[in-house]
Amino acid sequence: xxxxxxxxxxxxxxxxxxxxxxxxxxxxxxxxxxxxxxxxxxxxxxxxxxxxxxxxxxxxxxxxxxxxxxxxxxxxxxxxxxxxxxxxxxxxxxxxxxxxxxxxxxxxxxxxxxxxxxxxxxxxxxxxxxxxxxxxxxxxxxxxxxxxxxxxxxxxxxxxxxxxxxxxxxxxxxxxxxxxxxxxxxxxxxxxxxxxxxxxxxx
Length: 203
Description:
Strand content: 25-35%
CATH superfamily: Vaccinia Virus protein VP39
Structural class: alpha/beta
CATH architecture: 3-Layer(aba) Sandwich
Low-confidence stretches: 1-5
Helix content: 25-40%
Largest sheet: 7 strands, mixed
Order of helices and strands: HHEHEHEEHEHEE
Number of domains: 1
Number of helices: 6
Strand order of the largest sheet: 3-2-1-4-5-7-6
C-alpha cells in the first residue's frame, strides 16, 4: 500500500515495527478461497506488507513473488516464512519502480490502495506482469467504507467503486466485479463490518 503522506515508507515501517502483526498472520479469506480454485503456479503479490498471504501461498505450493515499500514489512514477512521452514522471494520497492522478473499466472491485489494520481498508472503497469490467460484476484475497500471504523483509507479518493475497478481491468478477457459488506477479523487494523469491492477474472 501507499499512503497519502510525504514519506509513506516511514509510516508503514512504523506500523510494521511492532512485535504484533498488524493484520494478523492468517491470509485474507477471499484471497485464500479464490487461490484454492486455481492450479498452483506463479503468483505476484503487490504491497504484501508482513507476508500473511505470501506465506499461505508458499505453504500450498505456489511460486511466490512479493514486494512492498516497507523494510520492516519485508523483515517480518521473511521471518514468518522462516517460521514455517519456507523461503520467500520478497523485494523492497516502490510500486512505480518494481519490475517483476517473469510473467505470473496469478496476480492478487489485497487492499492495495494508492493515491488517486497514481492508481491507474500503477495498476496498468502491474497488470502487465500477468500472463495472458492468467487469473486476477482483487479485494479492497469501497468508498462506502469511509467512517465504518473497520480500517482502511478514510478518504473516498483512496478507496474504490465498482465502476473504477471495472475500468482498471477493462482490457482483461473476463472480470466479475462486485461490492459486498463483510466482517473483517484481520488483526488490529482490519476489524469489524466493512464495505469492500471484490473482483476475479482472467486476462
